[in-house]
Amino acid sequence: MQRPTPAWSTPELQTLRAQVTRFFAAEISPHMERWSERGYIDRETWRKAGQLGIALPDIAEEYGGGGGDFRHLAVVLEEGGYVAEAAWGVAVHAIVAQYLAAYASAEQKRRWLPRLTAGEWVGAIAMTEPGAGSDLQGIKTRAIRDGDALVINGQKTFITNGWHAGLVIVVAKTDPSEGAKGISLIVVETEHCAGFRRGRLLEKIGQSAQDTVELVFDDVRVPADHILGGQPGQGFYQLMKQLPYERLIIGVRAVATIERALELTLEYVRSCQAFGKSLFDQQNTRFELAEMATEAKIARTFVDRCVSDLVAGKLDAPTACMSKWWTTDKQCEVIDRCLQLFGGYGYMREYPIARMYEDARVQRIYGGANEIMKEVIARSL
């Protein structure tokens, strides 16, 4: 199976892809087993990505970024999917940078973005709480004004990049009486930050090399102007405005992983013999692969269109939700069917398809559970 070239690709993006491929081969793939055992990647990996300009390829060059657009980030995400890598939290890092690019002041952008693009800082977003996941209005973290500072108290969980995070965007209530209108996004610089602490590394059923931790904010004081947008109460709107970007990131990764799962399965069934001929020559195998190849092409066509629409400023929230729920559901389904064709070997973790099976499941949960995606779509009908 020939890997498809995205409809949005250009010669420049192909050059970037070759660079990213070399980075994954040299700096990610050889270390996956070690990272999986301890639960987080090397800090130096972020700096190396920053030196190559691929930590934030869609941030403006004036802040040290690659100067590209979402397509450039999509190249990085796809190459991660093709090597079945779920360790480097570049997607969350990119989401954090987008919030800063959209809502931080000019001075704040100059302070924060270069350190993120260089890999000097790792970005995280503290949204989910032990008692509040997809329902953001249920969060209990508070940020109360005290003179020229905000005092943050609360606990966050399931925080990707939390282990290394140098900058965290905290979703908190600045006015609990206002519901969604009382939510704000607040930037916390974690270095030498009194009252901030990282909790335990959380043990997951997949994505074991990607750090996921609890974060605690105990009377953490930050300047009042660290509220993104300059005024309190804009957080819910800001989150809703940026979620299409986040959800398409997940869809892009899902499509690349589907395509890689098919590649691996085709290689296996062509080499494995059963009943005197290769598995590929068995009719059931061929029909399974034909169905999955069709679904992969549908997913690729749809997501490529979404990428082009996002770059053009035309991707609406319901369509982004469609891309997220459908591709991640399909990712889990296709990988499961591929694993079945591997037989018992598919259940062995030494085979990439087994690790892909473990890693895929959470795609249907983070970025908003797929049930929430369907609710957003339904409200637009």
Description:
By secondary structure, the protein is α+β, with helices and mostly antiparallel strands. The protein has three domains: 11-121, Butyryl-Coa Dehydrogenase, subunit A, domain 1 (Orthogonal Bundle); 123-233, Butyryl-CoA Dehydrogenase, subunit A, domain 2, CATH 2.40.110; 237-379, Butyryl-CoA Dehydrogenase, subunit A, domain 3 (Up-down Bundle), CATH 1.20.140.10. The protein has helices at residues 11-28, 32-38, 43-52, 70-82, 90-103, 106-117, 235-271, 283-311, 317-342, 352-360, 370-379; strands spanning 122-126, 142-146, 149-160, 165-173, 183-189, 196-201, 212-223, 273-274, 277-278. The strands form three sheets. It has a four-stranded antiparallel β-sheet with strand order 2-3-7-6, with no helix packed on it. A three-stranded mixed β-sheet has the order 1-4-5, covered by helices on one side. The radius of gyration is 21 Å and the shape is globular. The two termini are 37 Å apart.
